[in-house]
Design goal:
Length: 172
Amino acid sequence: MSKTDYKTIIKDKRLEAGKLMAEEQIVKCNVVIHTAAVAAGASGAIPIPVADAIPMSAAQVTMAVALGKIFDQNITDTAAKSMLGAAAATFLGRELFKFIPIVGWITSAGIAASVTEALGWTLAVDFAKTYRAEYERRKSAEEAAREYAKAESYKEAAKHSEEAAEDFAEEE
């Protein structure tokens, strides 16, 4: 996938995020995702092949866990690592670029940052969808509970009315 494709993914996911998230959530996601992208880009610029794997993975796992927290989702490190499988697919290509001095290192850094940014917005949108669905489910459950309580109070009131009517009929 070319860098242009990552730009398109990022643009599309940011637009989708704008429709799903509150402004505060977007701001928090920006901070988390950009921080991870910068860290991944910096580690991607390390000229030694394979030396960037651990710091880049750490930045991406930390990003996934932090995004989960924004949307009240508990993401374990193991789950975060499994979500990042897509980023691992670019690993070999990035590493091959590192054999080309300077230009290869810069390219590797750009790919690492772009992949991390695209992955971050994809995760953020998925988390936002889950968060919104859970919110709607809870809202529906609360409404159902209120309606149930209302029905129960009507039943109780009707029961007392019937008892009062029976007492009144016995008095006559």
